[in-house]
Amino acid sequence: MTAPVALPRPVRVRAHGKINLHLGVGDRHDDGYHALATVFQAVSLPEEVTATAAPGFSIAVSGTADPGSVPLDDRNLAMRAARLLASATGYEGGVHLEVHKSVPVAGGMGGGSADAAAALLACDAVWRTDLPYARLHELAARLGADVPFALQGGIAVGTGRGDVLTPALARGRFDWVLVLSEEGMSTPAVYARLDRHRDEEGLLADDPSPSLDVPPALLQALLSGEPRLLAAELHNDLQVAALRERPDLQTVIDEGLAAGALRGIVSGSGPTVAFLCASPGEAALVRDRLAGGGREALHVHGPVPGARILA
Ligand code: C5P
């Protein structure tokens, strides 16, 4: 077979950050990962990756979300995605990636995972390796637990490490206000903190361990499209650990509720706090009040699509 010839023009792909509407964390396995039962919703914070065929591999990062703290070497998940696709397909050339970020870095919203999903799709198009979607999904799962969801988008139940996805249905749109933190948080550190907390409280001793399920009421609330019903069902097992690392996040949650949000939860492993609001208008008010109090606050909505090539 002749090797595919790369496209002579760049390919631009957009993927989005996510909020975990439910994050149930089970036992830690030998590979260091925890069993999860989670529900993801992609929200309107775009990451854009532009891929241009090149002899070697290089990356540049820009955007509003502290791009200075993003590594530009093989620790970068978009770069790892490109190299993984090249080795999986036997493609012999390289790529220059330009990543434009708006998801907060190390914020618990899957920004790095969105970059990886976008880079996979962009390289697959620019190199004309044209992998079937199932194969891209498989490579995504090798890059990180949240990468398959960033590829798929919308709303999905995630089991396994969070990488085994079943799409979920929802009516309408949900409006969120995100409060960002200046300091990011390390995801492995927050999971480790949860394990310690459960150890101290004797919560790891269950035998057999409690079953991990997504509450049916949450899926019903999504179907109803009613934010008040969804607000009542939001849950994050990592929140207790994130609050132990960063007790100030409780103040953020309290401020958001006082500003009129229906409910506030730590997003993923934090430190971003996500506030569900009753309507777009309410969300704009909550954002303005929080920003007026000196918080960095953004109004976003979900669900939005997964990784897509832009015309
Ligand atoms: O897969 P990803 O690189 O996003 O995961 C980052 C870290 O989060 C892992 O190294 C692990 O410490 C933790 N994690 C976990 N269980 C999961 C997903 C992530 O313990 N299911």
UniProtKB/TrEMBL annotation:
Pathway: Isoprenoid biosynthesis; isopentenyl diphosphate biosynthesis via DXP pathway; isopentenyl diphosphate from 1-deoxy-D-xylulose 5-phosphate: step 3/6. GO terms for molecular function: 4-(cytidine 5'-diphospho)-2-C-methyl-D-erythritol kinase activity. ATP binds at P104, V105, A106, G107, G108, M109, G110, G111, G112, S113, A114. Keywords: ATP-binding, Isoprene biosynthesis, Kinase, Nucleotide-binding, Transferase. Coiled coil: none annotated. Residues 76-154 form the GHMP kinase N-terminal domain. It holds the Pfam family GHMP_kinases_N. It is an enzyme of class 2 (transferase). Its EC number is 2.7.1.148. The active site is at K18, D146. The keyword Endoplasmic reticulum does not apply. Residues 219-291 form the GHMP kinase C-terminal domain. Belongs to the GHMP kinase family. IspE subfamily. This is 4-diphosphocytidyl-2-C-methyl-D-erythritol kinase. It comes from Microbacterium resistens. The gene is ispE.
